[in-house]
Amino acid sequence: MKLTVVGCSGSFPSAESACSSYLVEADGFRLLLDMGNGALGELQRHCGLYDLDAIFLSHLHADHCIDMCAYFVARYYRHDGGRCDPIPVYGPEGTEHRLTTAYADTPSASSMSEVFDFHTVKPSTFDIGPFTVHTERVAHPVEAYGIRVEHGGRSLTYSGDTGVSPALEELARDSDLFLCEAAFTHGKENIPDLHLNGREAGEAASRAGARKLVLTHIPPWTDPEVNLTDARTAFAGPVELARPRVTYEI
User: Fold this and answer.
1) Which of 56, 95, 146, 177 lies 20 to 30 Å from 8, alpha-carbon distance?
2) Given this model, what pLDDT does residue 111 score?
3) Residues in the chain with pLDDT values less than 50
């Protein structure tokens, strides 16, 4: 598998990065995990506008899904006059309604479903193209899911947004790469069931036995180097910060 960081900023885009969006590729299939603010523009550096094969939305906060509205425009009003066939979109209950409401003036209440084939995510195991994926509900104020993507005996786990979550740690068990949010700073923010800090992300990776930890979803007002240092105190394996346009071979 190949993982490309399209965007990794938490809460709102930074001067360097769009919000959460990660491209996973194998066997010519392209799966996008989340499409937050600014992600659609950055995505076009890495693949054609119409070359995605499926999209997974971890939850329905704007910094993880709002560029789906812009992508609707690109697919519904395609420049050559031919509307795109529906692409599978996996998201929590109410994803279609959330995106339709955010767009505000779609041609009809069902227009989104003309270009997006919506599938409701629950804790389960299923296939998306060549990938076997496992999803689990994680600790966040809205319905949110972590996802494990497996292919060819290798595994990637993406936390989405979460506080401390035993379900996430089980999802990340022995993962080759654990892409984990670390939005909070240890000793500064302490809001249960919202986000992890660097130390908590490191502890989760350690308990899960992950092989590599990549910290993501760090907001522009948070010092990422502090979170990186904190994660390294709790996890003995390799740890680094997610950065836009960086790729990983898994």
Assistant:
1) 95
2) 94
3) none
